[in-house]
Amino acid sequence: MSVSNKKATTAMFKRVKIFLTDVDGVLTNATVILNGKTEFKQFNIQDGMGMRLLQHVGIPVGWVSNRKSAATTARAKELTVDYLWQKSLPKVAAVEAILKKAKLTWADACFMSDDINDLAVLDRVGLPIAVGNAMPDVKRAAKYVTTATGGQGAVREVCDKILCAHGHMPAILQRLRHPEGYREQ
User: What DSSP letter does each residue of 155-174 carry, written as one string?
Assistant: First the structure.
C-alpha cells in the first residue's frame, strides 16, 4: 500500500455523497484515436457498472472534462450520468456548478484524477483520489491512490469502496444473486 492510501479511511468513503471524475486518463486509458473527424475512446465496462451501482443507491455521478468529445457524450448518455461537463473552462468552476445543482458541498464530493490540471479540484474535495498511473503531484494531493490504472478498473475500485463504506454491498450482491422473480427450486 502506498503512503497516500494510508490517508484515506472508511469514514471518508462513507461521507461521499457525489462521485465526480475526470474522463481522459481515468475513465479511459488516456488514448484518443482519431480517424478523420471520428474520435474513439476505450471505456472499461466494470467502471460503468460501478457508477451505475452508485446511482442505484442514490449517489449521483458526474464527469468533468476540458474537452468536448462525442465518444464521451455517447458513453455518458448510455450510463445515464447525472452531470456531464465538457467545456474548456477551469474544472473548479465546473465542480462548483455541479455541486450547486446537486445541493451538495465540496466536502461531500469525491473526485478522481490522473493529471495536474485537476489539482485545484483535488485540493477542495472531501475525498481526492488519484488513479494508479497518475502524475506524481496528483498522487501526493490524493488521499487514496488506486491499485488499478486509468481505464483499467480504477473507477470500479473506488465505487466498490464507497458502496462498502455506505454498507450497500451486501444488499447489492444479494439482489444480483436472487433477482426479482427468481424462485429457487
Answer: HHHHHHHHHHHTT-HHHHHH
**Location of C-alpha cell 461521499:** 16
CA 132, distance to chain mean position in Å, is: 14
Nearest to 43 by CA among 16, 19, 78, 17: 78
Residue 60 and residue 83 in contact, taking contact as beta carbons nearer than 8 Å:
yes
Range of the domain at 27: 4-177
Q: How many CA atoms lie within 13 A of 4 on its CB side?
A: 19
The answer as to whether 110 is a domain residue is yes
Residue with cell 462513507: 14
Give residue for cell 427450486. Answer: 185
Model confidence, pTM: 0.92
How confident is the prediction along the chain (185 residues), in pLDDT tens digits per residue?
444 455 878 999 999 999 999 999 999 998 888 888 888 999 999 999 999 999 999 999 999 999 999 999 999 999 999 999 999 889 999 999 999 999 999 999 999 999 999 999 999 999 999 999 999 999 999 999 999 999 999 999 999 999 999 999 999 998 888 876 444 43
- Total of domains in the chain: 1
